[in-house]
Design goal:
The chain has 94 residues and is mainly α. It has four helices and no strands. Helix 1 runs antiparallel to helix 2 and helix 2 crosses helix 3.
C-alpha cells in the first residue's frame, strides 16, 4: 500500500472539493472540507467536542461523514458511534 505525504493528501482533498463545490456552499463547505481532511488525517478526535456547541461544525461533520463513506475512507469508530447517536429522534443538534 502506498503511503501519501501530508501535502499529497491535502492536494487530493482540495482537488476533490473543487470538483464538488456546487453541492456544498458557504461555511458548511469550509467546515465539511476541514472535517473531511481531519477524517483522512485521523486527527478528528482533537476537534470532535466542537459538535456539542457549533451547529455549522455539526452539519459539516455529518456531510464529511457521508462523503467519507461514499469514498470508502476508513471512518473512526467514535465517529460511527456519534453518527448513530445523532440519528435518534430524541437527539437535538446544537
Amino acid at each position: 500500500m502506498k503511503h501519501f505525504s501530508e501535502s499529497e493528501i491535502c492536494a487530493w482533498v482540495h482537488e476533490y472539493f473543487n470538483r464538488h463545490k456546487q453541492y456544498i456552499t458557504g461555511i458548511k463547505f469550509v467546515l465539511t472540507k476541514v472535517c473531511y481532511s481531519k477524517i483522512i488525517e485521523c486527527t478528528l478526535y482533537m476537534h470532535i467536542e466542537r459538535v456539542c456547541y457549533d451547529r455549522d461544525f455539526y452539519d459539516g461533520l455529518r456531510e464529511a461523514y457521508q462523503l467519507a463513506k461514499y469514498d470508502h475512507v476508513k471512518v473512526p469508530e467514535f465517529l460511527e458511534m456519534w453518527i448513530a447517536e445523532t440519528i435518534s429522534p430524541a437527539h437535538r443538534p446544537p
